[in-house]
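Ops channel
N.P.: pipeline sanity check, posting one input/output pair.
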């Protein structure tokens, strides 16, 4: 009974800290990015409507280390070199907004925008599933059911979502990279055209799938033990 209460208390602490970290992470990363994107969208709409028949899109891409050093920057001393790791381009094209090009706000490609939305939805679903798992663990300790079939499905879903988010984010970035390489061709800035695969998220996704299979085996062993008793 004492061990059960201790485990219950530890899970409650994890449950609380998870949501605190989630709120802090949202305020420190997602909220500033959303507000920055909202300001850019307002600025773009104001500029486009003011100028008339123009459309604006943005491109983000990393630069090569060998080609990221700028030859001269006004106001910087001669003995100081300036280099950049990433580039953000704001491109204006002479055409009206239509239904077909309304999503081409990123890298002049509607597919890149859809991939960014898919990535955000996948990560949001992961956060929700983790919260559900922690809440289920809290209830399972109270009901003396350490392994639940629902958590196995949620764990497997987290693994799949992590893989989907990693791949969609990588393809979205690669579309930006290809567009930036085309726009900056012949300039002093050299775009790093390496496919930006996030290996860490891939590994985490595979580990979550492996953990789900471990939970399946553990559940089967627990049920067999109950039948034996």
């Amino acid at each position: 009974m004492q061990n059960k209460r201790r485990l219950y208390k530890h899970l409650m602490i994890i449950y609380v800290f998870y949501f605190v970290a989630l709120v802090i992470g949202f305020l420190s990363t997602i909220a500033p990015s959303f507000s920055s994107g909202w300001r850019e969208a307002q600025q773009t709409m104001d500029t486009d409507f003011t100028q008339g028949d123009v459309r604006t899109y943005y491109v983000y891409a990393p630069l090569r280390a060998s080609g990221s050093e700028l030859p001269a920057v006004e106001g910087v001393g001669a003995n100081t070199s300036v280099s950049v790791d990433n580039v953000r381009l704001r491109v204006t094209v002479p055409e009206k907004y239509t239904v077909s090009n309304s999503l081409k706000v990123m890298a002049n490609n509607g597919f890149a925008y859809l991939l960014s939305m898919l990535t955000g939805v996948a990560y949001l679903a992961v956060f929700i599933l983790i919260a559900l798992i922690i809440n289920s663990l809290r209830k399972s300790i109270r009901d003396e059911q350490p392994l639940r079939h629902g958590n196995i499905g949620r764990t497997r879903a987290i693994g799949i979502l992590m893989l989907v988010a990693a791949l969609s984010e990588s393809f979205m970035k690669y579309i930006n990279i290809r567009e930036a390489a085309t726009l900056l061709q012949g300039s002093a800035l050299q775009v790093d055209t390496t496919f930006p695969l996030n290996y860490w998220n891939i590994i985490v996704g595979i580990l979550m799938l492996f953990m789900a299979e471990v939970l399946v085996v553990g559940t089967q062993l627990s049920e067999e033990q109950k039948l034996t008793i």
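N.P.: looks fine end to end. The radius of gyration is 24 Å.
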